[in-house]
């Protein structure tokens, strides 16, 4: 089972990847939205902001998300690490229910290239 530190590292890698993106990926990541990622097995939620193509102000809070984020994800820590590492396909994980996504339709359409 992935640790909180490993999950934080995965989120840091994702943030670095987004910051260095260009083209359509950069455009998709240029949203200004609140984010949450609830790690169901660790009962911890990382909250932050997607702003200007970067993930910023990420903090960990115990339990489920403290409020509704514009873009909310829920998954296990192992799945987060595998997604960021390229070992798990987001569309398949989402389709099978391993990853849950809550977002407005417009956000989902803009983010599809990130996922």
Fold and architecture overview:
By secondary structure, the chain is of the alpha+beta class. Helix content is 38%, strand content 29%. The protein is built from five helices and five strands; from the N terminus they run ααββββααβα. The chain has a five-stranded mixed beta sheet with strand order 3-2-1-4-5.
Helix tally? 5
Structure class: alpha+beta
Strand order of the largest sheet: 3-2-1-4-5
Q: Could you state the oligomeric state of the chains shown?
A: single chain
What gross morphology would you assign?
globular
Helix content: 25-40%
Query: What fraction of residues sit in β-strands?
Result: 25-35%
The separation of the N and C termini measures 23 Å
Rg of Cα set: 13 Å
Largest sheet: 5 strands, mixed
Order of SSEs: HHEEEEHHEH
Q: What is the typical, i.e. mean, pLDDT?
A: 87
Beta strands, count: 5
Low-confidence stretches: none
Which features does this protein show?
globular; 5 strands; 29% strand; 115 residues; alpha+beta; five-stranded mixed beta sheet
Offer a concise description of the structure:
The chain has helices at 4-19, 23-28, 77-84, 90-96, 105-111, and strands at 33-39, 44-51, 54-62, 71-75, 100-103.
